[in-house]
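> @MW can you paste both from yesterday?
MW: sure, first one:
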Amino acid sequence: MWKEKTGLQLYSVRDELQKDFEGTLRKVKEMGYGAVEFAGLYDNEPEKVKALCEEIGLVPLSAHVPFQELTADPEGTVERYRRAGCRYIVIPYLTEEYRPGAEKFDDVLKYARLLGEICARNGMALQYHNHDFEFAKIDGEYALDVLYREVGPELLQTQIDTCWVNVAGEDPCAYVRRYAGRIPTVHLKDFAGRKAGRMYGLIGMEDTEEKSDTFEFRPLGKGLQDIPAIVKAAIESGAQWLIVEQDEPSMGLDRMACAKASMEYLAGVLEAY
């Protein structure tokens, strides 16, 4: 059952999608994934994407949508992904001016409430996907916890990225359990090395040519994360879907090979469930 409840964040295979959207989705299904999480529709009409996923046998589960895109046209953007069949809209990343301690962090709280209401009206739910910068403290409390306290679960669900929790110095299992009952999807991501400067260049979110020789993303089971323990915590905390993500390939593998290796490893872990 649980193998069917695994998804791939398609940012992991973005180059392949750009070249062959349909063919890449078919290969993702062949790897054993049951769902996909979008990071853009690559100029495809939402209805076409929904129909293609239905034909292939993939659940168009969710979409990471840039915060500025969501705030520029909240109603229209949510409606677009509803038409694509998505159940969740996810705020995936905040640029520096919106981060904790910056001048526009209050806008994040305001728009999370608004977007949560719009999603609910459309039969969807809003989620927030963390990195490590949300573990800056505001009056002694992690900003991520402030966000989830200020915007209630009826408007905002969690999507804990377990890699970035670890990078921030916290226990991924404990953080997943902290939000039991509010955690429909969990991001599984493995890594090796340690935190380095300009980390967000590694995920394509900073304009830098700098490469870290102290940190790299890895296929599941090839890094430092205790994936079996994280999976156990997620399932026991009420997660409905496990989503694999690897921002950049490593270990001499291309993007598709990394996604396949992660699914092969995860399928073995899930045999216990």
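MW: second:
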Amino acid sequence: MIRATFQHLPGVGPATEVELWRHGVRDWTDLADAPVTRSLPDAARARIRRELVASERAFAERDVAWFGRRLPDREHWRLFPEFAAETMYLDIETTGLSPYGGIVTVASVYARGENRTFLAGEDLEELPAYLGRFPVLVTFNGSRFDVPFLHAVFPTMGEPPVHIDLRFLLYRIGLSGGLKRIESTLGLGDRSGVEGIDGLEAVRLWQEYRRGSRAALETLVRYNRADTKNLEPLLKLAVDRLSSRLLGAGHPVGAPAGAVGAASGAGA
């Protein structure tokens, strides 16, 4: 999808992008040689070619932050799946809804097929550095809860260049409600062994662990990890549906395009 995206280019908004698609401009290479581009003044054509060359360079160098700075936040989802290897899924458990009345007990990060869990009183302080290893963050309602909570706990923690909040992305394809409700509606995700557990139960499990129950901690960690790993299939579904809606089911959104760099040297 990212190679069919033009909103990261100066002066291109949603309406212009749709018009480009309607006129058969389906990727960066198309734009470099499209009639709509050739009809522009020389200076404008040169600027577009420079921006497309820069796009190709950033893509080849896997510079996710470059695209994150230029794309509107609500369109950050377009960077997946091309940057799946740079993507992490985060969820935290807390003892309250506010960092001033509760603490982070457990936090899990799922990335590259592996889950890493951080525990209060053991290694939670290592979480910010670990998050800094991945430029694409995926959460469910994390922009309203997880990230602000963590910033209150770790004031110097940096912002990821790209943040995809699935709560709002899924709403765009008609799916609302809590994470578990959406999982159930779609039949996606695996909650084996932690069925029926919710946020309140997670608080109780933490309290049991603090009283000495290792089994309670194991259940809490399993629950927290499910909340992260289950985000991946939901993101894939949302990206597929939004891509098809924007471009049409027949457009190969993941197909590679030719290098713009070669086209940039051609005469207009």
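> thanks! Strands lie at 87-94, 104-111, 114-119, 136-139, 162-165.
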